[in-house]
Specification:
The chain has about 270 residues and is α/β, with parallel strands linked by helices. It is built from 10 helices and 11 strands. About 40% of the residues lie in helices and about 25% in strands. The longest helix has 17 residues.
Length: about 270
C-alpha cells in the first residue's frame, strides 16, 4: 500500500493534478451591515457595490487559476491585514499599497493595478473653500477643513502628518463607506479616498451631491501599485498567486474584469 500511494503521488505530480489547496480568503467590503443574506454581496446600485463586485470577482478568478478551494469571508478593511498576519486568512483582497510597516507584517503579491487618491466633496463646499483660498481646491492647498479618511489607511496617515501645519481636523472612520457617510451627514467637509473606492461610492450615491475635488495624487504614499496580501511564510502560495496575476494580465482577463465594474479609466 505505501508503494501504491507513492506511485499515485508521483503520477499526480507528473500530471499537475495534485489535490486543491483549501484557502481562507478575505475580501474587502465597505460596510458589513450592507451584506445581504441571499448570496448577493451588495444590492445593485448600493454605494460601493462596484468595488466590492470587482474585488470579489478578482479573488474568485485567482482562486480558480491556482486551483484552490477558497472559503470567502467578506470583511472591512481594518480586519484583513491583522487576519492575514495571525493566520485567519491565507489571502487578503483589498486596495493594499506597499508600506514599510505593512511589509513587516505580511507579504505582498506582484502588482494587480495602480492606485491613486482623490479628495471627494460637494461642489458647494469646494466653491466655499476656493473663495477662501482664492484658488481651486486641491490636496496641496487645503487648509482649515475637516477631512474624513479610513482608519489605518495611507490616506489617514498622510492627513495625520500634515494636519498640524494645515489646521486640518482628521475624521477617522472604521470604513471607507463611513468616510463617505461623514460627508453625507455633514461631519466632514471632504473625504480623502482611494480613487476606485471613491468612484464606486460616488457613482451610486442617489443624492448626487458629491464628486471629485482637485486632481488625483499618487505621491506622499497616496498612490502606488495595489497588491494581494498573504502570510510572509507562504512563499509557495505567493509564487502561485503571482503566476495567476501574470496570466490574468497577459490574456486580458484583468482588464475585462476592471471594465465590467469601472467603465472609466481610473489608473
Amino acid at each position: 500500500m505505501p508503494a501504491l500511494r507513492s506511485l499515485l503521488l508521483i503520477a499526480a505530480l507528473w500530471s499537475g493534478a495534485l489535490p486543491a489547496a483549501d484557502l481562507r480568503v478575505a475580501v474587502l467590503v465597505q460596510d458589513t451591515a450592507q451584506l445581504t443574506i441571499h448570496g448577493e454581496l451588495l444590492p445593485s446600485g448600493t454605494p460601493g457595490a462596484d468595488l466590492v463586485a470587482f474585488t470579489d470577482e478578482l479573488a474568485h478568478e485567482i482562486c480558480r487559476r491556482i486551483r484552490a478551494r477558497c472559503t470567502f469571508s467578506y470583511v472591512v478593511f481594518g480586519e484583513i491585514l491583522p487576519g492575514v498576519e495571525d493566520g485567519r486568512f491565507e489571502l487578503g483582497f483589498g486596495n493594499f499599497l506597499r508600506a514599510p510597516k505593512r511589509e513587516k507584517r505580511v507579504a505582498f503579491s506582484d502588482p494587480i493595478f495602480r492606485s491613486a487618491s482623490r479628495l471627494v466633496g460637494s461642489p458647494a463646499t469646494a466653491r466655499a473653500f476656493a473663495g477662501r483660498f482664492g484658488q481651486a481646491v486641491s490636496l496641496d492647498n487645503l487648509r482649515g477643513a475637516r477631512v474624513a479618511a479610513m482608519e489605518g489607511s495611507q490616506q489617514q496617515a498622510f492627513l495625520d502628518a500634515i494636519a498640524p501645519e494645515r489646521d486640518l481636523t482628521v475624521v477617522a472612520t472604521a470604513t471607507t463607506g463611513g468616510a463617505f457617510g461623514a460627508l453625507r451627514k455633514g461631519d466632514a467637509d471632504f473625504a480623502l479616498l482611494a480613487i476606485r473606492t471613491a468612484y464606486a461610492l460616488i457613482s451610486h450615491d442617489n443624492s448626487r451631491r458629491f464628486g471629485f475635488v482637485g486632481p488625483a495624487v499618487a505621491d506622499h504614499g497616496l498612490g502606488d501599485t495595489a497588491h494581494v496580501i498573504l502570510p510572509r511564510r507562504k512563499e509557495a502560495l505567493r509564487r502561485s498567486v503571482n503566476e495567476a496575476i501574470a496570466e490574468i494580465r497577459a490574456d486580458g482577463t484583468g482588464h475585462r474584469i476592471m471594465r465590467r465594474h469601472f467603465p472609466v479609466t481610473l489608473d
